[in-house]
Each structure stands twice: as structure tokens, then as C-alpha cells.
Design brief:
Length: about 850
Amino acid sequence: MSDAQPDSEPYEPVPAPDYQGHLPAGRPRWKSRLLRLLAWGGAAAVVATVALFAGYLYLAREVPTFDTVKDYRPLVSSHVIARDGTVVGEFFKERRTVVPMEKIPRVLLQAVISAEDKDFYQHPGVNPVALVRAAIVDTLSGRKRLGASTITQQVVKNFFLSSEKRWQRKLKEILLSARLERNLSKDDILFLYLNQINFGRARYGVEEASLYYFNKHVWEIDLGEAAILAGLPQNPSRINPRRHADRAKRRQIYVLDRMLANGYITRAEHDSEVEKPIVLPPVPPEPPGAFYLDEVRRQLVAQYGEAAVDGSGMTIEIAMDPKLQAAAETALRDGLRAVDRRQGYRGPRARLGAGQVEAARSALSQKLGQQALGGDEVSVVDLDGIPENDAAKPDSLARGARVRALQEDETYIALVTAADAREAKVWLAPDVTASVPFSTMQWARKFSPEKSTPLPRGANEVLAPGDLAEIRVLRLATTRDGPDHVRPTRLEVALEQDPLVEGAFVGIDLKTRQVVALVGGYDQTLATFNRATQARRQPGSAIKPFIYAAALESGRYTPTTRVDDSPEVIVDPWTGKPWKPQNFEKDEFAGPIPLRRALAESKNTVAVKLLVALGLDKLRTEAAEAGVTSDIPQSFTAALGTGEAGVLEMVNGYTTLATWGQKADPILIRRVVSRDGVTTQAAKLDPVQSMRADVAYLTADLMRSVIEDPEGTAHSLSALGRPAAGKTGTTSEHRDGWFIGFTPTLVAGAWVGFDDHRMMGSYETGGHCAGPIWLSWMRAATAGTDLEPWPQPPPGVTCERVNRNTCALANDNDPFAVRECFLSGTEPTPAQTADLPGSPDDFYQAPR
């Protein structure tokens, strides 16, 4: 059988080329070239495919996954909740509050799509037409003019990529955009965009932006407000409606135009919003508690780290009571201003050069015309913060000035235009001038805390034309002249100055040990140093209650025990140097007086004699048992508070006395809850009976005389009209002034002094400079509450009626009888009373 196949063509092998590469005759040259071209093209395609795949694998390994919207874990502000449930602060790196898609109004979604990506719901994540168009325009113009990024690409860039302009980043952006579109729905991508994007002023996401610009939640905004928000992401700083209303209006109109073109709004709705000016509500005042929040944050950062505090979205419940906190800040500010006025006037903030007043007014008027607030507010120029070397330059003055709304009880730096003996004239705006009467500046003697200087005799001795002087608005009434203009009809102002002297205040709820108020200085925007928790100052006589507690506990002393108030030279056993303690009254001594009177009048000689008799260790032990753990110096001067302690520490120590010896840490943070709802920290009141209850009660009862006794160092505070106890503290040369006191429900303490420890002036005792701060706060804190009686004594305390002069038991008809408490077993007995020698007072007490 033959192998030939007659029905098929015979096989003819392709002739091999000759040694020069020429094909044999019989095949056209073009066919050969085509075959070679196809072969090379196929090879190139294979190589390109491999290269693209390799590039994909290379880029894909660097691109994070984002499989579901549940993977969205952005930086979220941590919110601080006060005792009454109100939000009083946020800790953040990016100020963001995530809101679900269902709470974002449809009109905002339409505005954002119109402004940023009209084909969002149609494209697969990248818009090729837009990319080509942008590339052509940018190439022809030589610079970037058109944006081609879709909302999906913007989400990718904001979440995962840097802003560098390199082809690798762009490829990653396209790659991840496709992946995002596969894994998430369009609404999920829009949800990410609206909660992540920057809207300026550290506000991220539509909720924080809406709260900042419109003072309302995002679900409450209208069409015009939605168009403003939708336009902001293009350039938040440049078109911020609070600073650049004209630019913001142009951008808003653009968004409205796009919404009209896309059929989202009608022509009537479009035209109505275009005609409206942008009028924003004033920025809400910051809630009270800046120093309090600073201390809370410091504690949280020490425990959780800065990243967690500023970005994990935790909820922090704190003990602060906003009303009591606001009252504390007001009390401290008013008290420090009162001290500051007694120290004199430090002069204007700065002075203009001769002949520069009119030029300055012109420059300032021009700035005001560009940035007037409009609405229902009177716009004025505040020159606060102008550097002194710029004051003589009207242009620099205008650049540094701020446009603010004129409001009662606010301070402003104003330009003085004239001054005579009766008054000074100040300029705040072209149609806002005011008179500063001399009656409001009679205090303005030349600044000198250490010694007295002459008082001024006229306003022109205090202020002169060209001065930049601080004033306070006392009264303000306004009227509207037109749709966009409001002017004052009544404006009363007074000379003011920010105090140089500083202070601190702490208020604690006795039952819960929660710190309801804490203020670390006059103004946290001027200095962030928290004097309530970070400063350490000499407590002065505020340390004495712990000496008296040690004396009572020893059993050797009772409230009626007489100790000699007389000068005595004491040799310090640690230094060998002699020392002669002096009372505040210098050369005045009362002789033998009861312990109660000695504490009420803060007799230094008695405190030192008690400490010498008891020893330093007893004072250290008693103070530590109360919670005052700061070092007490190895010297009998410790009886006068020459050691150093913190304000919160001292107030908490008094809280132990006021709770009859129960020591506990002060509570600022009540609870911390993670963004997932898990409680990670909860404060528990776990007091320890560290002091004897009877000793603590008796010490507190002695401290009532500091206020109730007409000769007590804080008798002026009896104006509170409630049972109260406390102690003043004044250090050497009046460098520190204290008052710490308590009622049956609250304890509070104030400290006043200069940061650099200079003298405050001979008038500034603790009762005079710190006492009024305490009284002001206690009045506010107890207003509208029932009068609380002083608690009944605990077991171990016996109260008797004694004669206030002899301290013996009083008979039934004794007109000088007073109630006195003793540790049980130390009270006077009838036998002791019968053995008392007569005294000159007996003649006046004898029955007639």
C-alpha cells in the first residue's frame, strides 16, 4: 500500500534563504516582511502584556485593600462630655464626626456631584474622556488648568496616596479606583468622600463643616448652604465664607449653575439663592473649661498616647459642671482684675508716631470696608495683638488688625484720638467712637505693686492721642439703618488692662470627690501653663490646719487650750540659726489665747510653737494622710508654709478634712468610652479613712472661726450667709495669696500671685486677694439651693457650752456661753471649772 495521498497537494518545504538572507525566487517580498512584522508584533505584545502584568503586581502590592465600608476607620475627634451631658470640647488631629449616609440630605449629595463629578453614577471610577480632555488642555496651556479626578479618585488619593505628582501615584490611583468601584457601591464611595474631605479650619467631613459655618447639623442645611459646602473642597482656605465671602459667593453660584444644568433644581430655586447674600451666624463662643480640658488631655495622653486621644474617636465623660466652671472663670478673672487695678496701670499696648492717627484711621477704615461682618452686628476693628514695633506703621497696623463684632462685656484695643482731663476719645470704626470717662480710670496710677504711686488727676495723665488702649464695653444698644448696616445708639466703655498677676481655682464636690471646676490662669489663650495643676507655690498659713489637726490628735491640746502668742527666739536645730517668728501685725501680740482664736486670727507664733512641741514628722504625717504629699522642708519655718504645694493638691487635702478624714484622689475623668462603645476607663470613688474622723471634724470646726469670728482673717466671707469653714494663706512679702474653704457640700480654693514670684503689694493678703474669688464662686454655686446645716459630729466628738472668756463650762444663764467641741474625754469637767481662778472678766459677768 502506497503512503501517497492523491486527494491532497504534495508537501513542498519552504526554501531556505541563502547565506545573504535572500529568499529563493517564488515568494513576494511584501509577504515576507508582513510575516516578520507580525512575528515581532506578537513578541512585543507578549512582552508588553508581561510587563503590564508585572507592573500591576508591583503596584498592587503597595496599594491597600478596602473591601467594605466597614474598613473605614478615619481619624475621628474625641468628644468631651461634661457632667450635664453637654459637649464641651474635642481632641483632634482632624476635626471629624462621621455621619451615616441616611443623615446627609439629598440636596447636598446633588450639589457635591454637580460640583465635583457630574457623571459619578455612570463612570467605572475613572472618566477617560475627562482625563484626555484635561491632558490636552494642560499640554496646550503648559500648566495644570483642568482637574480630571473623579470623586472615586479623590477618595483614593485622600485615603491611601500622597499628593505627589508622579506617574506611579497616578497609576496607583487609577488601579485602586477600579478596585474600590468593584468592592463598594457608589453610595458607599460618596459616604467616604463626604466624611473624609477637608472643608477648612481643621474641619473634616460635612458634619463638622456644617457645625462650623452654619451652627447646625448637616441634615438641617438648605440649598444655599449645601452649595457653599459643595464648593469648599476645591480650595477651603481661599474660599472660606467666613473670611472671603465674595469668593465663596462666586463658587456657590458656580455650584448652583451646575445643579441647574443637571436638572437637580429649578430656575426659580437657582435665581432665589443667587440673589441672597451669604450671611453666616457668628461663631459660637467656646464653651468654658479650656484649662480643665488641657489637664484632662494631659492625663489621657499619659495613659493612651497622643494618637489615640486625638484620632480614635473616644468619648470622655468628665466631672466638670459647665455652669460652675463658667462661674469659676468669671470669679477668677474679676478677682485678678481687681488685684491688678490696685497695682496700677502699665500703660497703653503701644503708641502711634506723631501725626499718624489720621493715616491709621484711613487704613483701618479701608480694611473694615473689605471685611465688615454685616447681619445684625456692629463691625469694629480690634488692634489686639499688634506688635509694638508695628504700631507706628499704619499699613502694618491695618494688616494685623481684626474685624470683630461689638459686644457687651468684651474687651478691644482701640485707637485714642483725643484726651483731656475729663475723658478720652477712642475710635473703633468710622461710625463707632466712644468716650472713656476719667471716672473709669481713676485707678490708673503708675504700675508699682511694691509701693504706692500717685493717683492720676485727669484722663490726659493716663491716655494720649495715638495710644492703643484696651477698653471694655459696659453697655451697648444698637439700631438698624438699612438692610446691611447696624450702628450703636448707646455705647459706654471703660479703661481696661489684662492683668499681669495670675491665679488658679479649683472646686470639688464633697460627696463625689469630682472636680466640678478648675481654672489654671487668667486666659488660656495668653498662656497655656496650668497653675491649678502644674504650678507649685508656698501655701503660707494655709498649711496651718494640718498643724492644728496634729495638735488635737496628740491629746495635749483642745480648742480651748491657751498657747502664748508672744515673740520668742527659736534656734533652728538643722541650721543652728536663731529665728524670731512674727505675726502679720508685726509687733502686735495677744498673749495666751485659745487654739480656736489662734487659728481664726492666723497667729504665726502659736503655729510655730505647736510645731516645735509636736515635731515636723507629725505635720508631715497629718498632711500626707489628708493627701498633701509635697515635701515639707526640714525647718520650723514649715509652720508658716514655706514648702511648696500644688493648688489642686491643697484643695484636695482640705476635702479630706471636710469629709471627716476620708482621703481619695480628685476625679476629673469619670469615664472613657471607645468609638465602639466599650468602656475603657471608669472612675470609682474609693475613699480611705486616713485621718481620724473625730480629729478631722474638730479641725474643720475650728476653721469655721476663720470666717465666723469677727476677728477672723476671712470674716468678710461670712457674707455668703451659709455655714462655711476655711483658711487663708499669705506668704512672706505677699508673694502668694490663698483661700481654701468649704460648705457642707462643696470645697474650693483660690491662689493668686505673679508667675515670677514678685511681691503683690502689702495689701494683698490671702483673705483680700483670693477670698473674694472664693466668695464669688460659692455664691454662684449655691444660688437657688437649700441652706445646708453643718453636719452633726461623728462618734468621738463631744460638744459643750463653755464660757468664751474662761473656756470653762458655762452655766445656764451665762451670756458669754458658746458651743465648743472636744475630742471625747478632753472636754472640761465641772471640777475643773470650779478650780478656775477669778479673772477681771468675772466682774462684768457676775449677776447684779
